[in-house]
Amino acid sequence: MSCPSTAGNLLYFLALMENSSLSSVGPVTEIQELFADVGGARMRYLQSGSGAPLVLIHGLLGYSFSWRFTIPALAQYATVYAVDMLGSGFSDRPRDLDCSLQAAAQCILQFTGAIGLKSFDLLGTSHGGGVAMMVAAACAHLPRPNVRRLILVAPINPWSPHGRRFAPFMGSLPMSTIFKFGMRSMSWTQRYWLARMYGDPRRIPAGTLEGYRAPYRKAEDFNTSLKIARGWNKDMFDLETAIPKIANYPTLLLWGSRDSAVYASSAEPLRRTFRDCRVRIFDGVGHLPYEEVPDDFNHELISFLTSKMARVAE
């Protein structure tokens, strides 16, 4: 089991926030770097703010750094917990880690139990959005479900076919080897993949590539993401089975119209599976609206969190 050093990372995160010109962020609140024991492994998370608990789940190759423009804005309305999933960011990387969606969902439930959360709102992006839906499905049968509301940002889903073809291809042994070599040895490869996540690469914030590079110093650090890719189609089957169970959760869907990773065309069929669901498509934006148009993104989040929508429909 290994864990990259966090030395300097939180300071770098805070420095970015102090230099931010975002109007929706306001004063930078205190952000704590903490660790929870989850199944014998150390799971890193950032905590900030006060109010109703809100758990943030990053996407593939992301970590809590993804939410650097989101945490300060939301901390004025909620107690925010931004996790580094096991195998990602600065959390431990167990060699035998189960990387399935179901296992990731149980990891989140173990995490919330470890820090004493009995109920919480849940925000997940991309692969983390799939994890969030699996968490909600696991809680749906409870008389008082742990999850109150869902916020899904371009979540992986059965109606976006791109991943079904691309992910298993990338997870194959030859492509895994090429991918790990390229990501660690060629800076232009990293810049290329980052630019593809944006509708307009000119909107990539300063320090973004450096921030995402920080926890990935060895080729082995990409193993979790590649294991997820290899199990993609099985995960999609499990997710398709789980989605009907979460129809009663009040839900906000956020997407970029130029998302090349999870197609925005899948937002409407996903919306129809919920009884109470809002949708906002950001025009001209890619897969990371929380970075590309953070003011607009934060406005939508705060509007949803401060609305009078029921926790879970009876």
Briefly say what this structure is.
The protein has 314 residues and is of the alpha/beta class.
List the helices and strands and how they pair.
Layout lengths: L8 H10 L12 E8 L2 E9 L2 E6 L13 H4 L3 E6 L17 H14 L5 E6 L1 H13 L7 E7 L8 H10 L1 H13 L1 H10 L11 H6 L9 H8 L1 H11 L8 E6 L10 H5 L5 E6 L6 H4 L1 H12 L9
Parallel strand pairs: 3-4, 3-5, 5-6, 6-7, 7-8
Antiparallel strand pairs: 1-2, 2-4
Give the overall shape. globular
The helix content is 25-40%
The end-to-end span amounts to 43 Å
Largest sheet: 8 strands, mixed
DSSP strand count:
8
- The CATH fourth-level homologous superfamily: Alpha/Beta hydrolase fold, catalytic domain
CATH topology: Rossmann fold
CATH architecture: 3-Layer(aba) Sandwich
Rg measurement, Å: 18 Å
Helix and strand pattern: HEEEHEHEHEHHHHHHEHEHH
* Poorly predicted regions: 169-181
Please, how many domains? Answer: 1
In DSSP terms (H or I, runs of 4 or more residues), the helix count works out at 13
In CATH, what is the class?
Answer: Alpha Beta
Mean pLDDT: 86
Strand pairing plus helix content: what structural class? alpha/beta
Q: Main sheet: which strands, in order across?
A: 1-2-4-3-5-6-7-8
The percentage of residues in β strands lies in 15-25%
